[in-house]
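Appendix B, record 7
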Amino acid sequence: MSQAPIDAQAPKKIGVIIGSTRPNRIGPQVAALVKSVLEESASDKTLTASPILSLIDIASFNLPPFDESILPAMVPAQAQFAHEHSKLWSAEIGKYDAYVFVTAEWNFGLPGSTKNAIDYLYNAWIGKPVMIVSYGIMGGKSASESLQKTLNGMHLHVVDTRPSMTFPDPDPAQHNMSPGLLGAMGGKLIDPVAEKWRTESKDELLKAYGELQAKLV
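Structure tokens (predicted):
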């Protein structure tokens, strides 16, 4: 009797991508919060093992504006990347079966660093499932919509539920400034905001995560 391939029973690997690369940022803290909520959930019963979630920090790859002379879609069948940063980024993304993008919103859109990192690659993540989580003054919904359009266009499978987390207690008289936003400007996700997001976004995060796991089967 033949045996299934070794990796058929292995847990799926999901990369939780930190989109923001600014020096003062809360992206790593938000991504860690999202990761912890997802890890607390039960695995989809159709999977043989609970997925393994790992943080991926775009900032750590020091990607300049795309500087390869070839098109990403040519790699690896027709050409290879010339620069080490491209090779390392491609190798990291290629490790995973699915992704969770955690994105901020800058000026009503997707951070340029996130879009640049996406544009570096094509075959490394084409056809894979992806979940989008956004945060910001208005929940980062414009960034989420932009990211959804980009990833769908690149033939990733974006789940329908896209959680968005809004800084509470905005002051309209002060350009929607809030204690949480002030903290974020200094690179700190303050405890009241973290707890509010963890509690109030949990159901939507788990719904999206369930949709993501269903696409891994």
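Remarks on this record: The first helix runs from residue 27 to 40. Helices lie at 27-40, 84-94, 112-119, 141-153, 179-185, 191-200, 202-214.
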